[in-house]
């Protein structure tokens, strides 16, 4: 869920962003990846229906093409989803983030992905 409970009902939102911090990948892995394989695509989706096992119905909100060799914040525009949730009172089933490792061989794919969550 994308938690909106702290926003007063009488407040009007004009935009919303999701900020993700990404770490550069390990040098040992980076050295084995050529420049044309150094791109990742990060996609952020709105989840449109309650998730079922193995099935996620989504709509793309924002996407970014990034290089693997830098640690930095990435900002994604999630305004369309948040405005639907607040103005139109549509259900909030959350957001989904997808990372695609462009042009990587199966040997390297996923070796540097770390998932963490804080509550």
TrEMBL record:
<dbReference type="InterPro" id="IPR015615">
    <property type="entry name" value="TGF-beta-rel"/>
</dbReference>
<keyword id="KW-0964">Secreted</keyword>
<feature type="domain" description="TGF-beta propeptide">
    <location>
        <begin position="2"/>
        <end position="115"/>
    </location>
</feature>
<keyword id="KW-0339">Growth factor</keyword>
<dbReference type="InterPro" id="IPR001111">
    <property type="entry name" value="TGF-b_propeptide"/>
</dbReference>
<comment type="similarity">
    <text>Belongs to the TGF-beta family.</text>
</comment>
<dbReference type="GO" id="GO:0005125">
    <property type="term" value="F:cytokine activity"/>
</dbReference>
<keyword id="KW-1015">Disulfide bond</keyword>
<dbReference type="GO" id="GO:0005615">
    <property type="term" value="C:extracellular space"/>
</dbReference>
<dbReference type="GO" id="GO:0008083">
    <property type="term" value="F:growth factor activity"/>
</dbReference>
<dbReference type="Pfam" id="PF00688">
    <property type="entry name" value="TGFb_propeptide"/>
</dbReference>
<protein>
    <submittedName>
        <fullName>Bone morphogenetic protein 4</fullName>
    </submittedName>
</protein>
